[in-house]
Amino acid sequence: MKNLTSRETQGVLVENRLDGPGQPSFAFRNPSSAIFYDWHAHPCHQITYARRGTTQIEGPDGHHLLPTAHAAWIPAETRHRTMIRDMDGVSVYFDPAYFPHGYMEHIHTFPITTMLQEMLLHTVRWQPGSTEHDPIARSFFQTVGLLCMEQMQAKTTRVFTLPRATHPSIVRAMDAALASPGQANLSLMLHHAGMSGRSFRRHFHAE
Q1: What are the pLDDT digits (tens) for 46-57?
Q2: What does 143-192 look like in DSSP terms, one character per residue?
Q3: Alpha helix locations (H) across 63-134?
């Protein structure tokens, strides 16, 4: 897995025009390789759909898992980091000024219909920057946003969020395990946490 630094992550944002609000909407295919983006935020809303692969988004309130037939909503200016593996999917970005009012204020995983799945994948037909002057594109993205909002507001009893650890030593150990799960073991976690086995177990169970 490629672990991007804060500077490298910011470079990806600039390269993909994510350092601006969206003007008014655009989309692109997510990379299929295994990548762990560092903490970042952007001024546009984001909806990510994964047709296959593993996607995990960590935000202020926990780790959000993205299962099949679901999409993830990340509000504008929400600090988060993302880990993806073997992903086949798309991310759609919306300028908050053009997005329907009443949007969710937190990262949220929600189910999508087959129709909405195909619409999300269809958004990549337009190049970034082209929707501002294309009435069909603007209308299409607005409809996608409205349908996603409808799905987000639908009641569901399924929860795909795991709470974050708060103890800095446990956080370091968990980050190391996430970055390289195949090599994760207790001795390596103790090294990253800087703790004895007894202290690590005590704090881990407390979390």
Answers
A1: 999 988 888 889
A2: HHHHHHHHHHHS------EEPPP-SHHHHHHHHHHHH-GGG--HHHHHHH
A3: 114-122
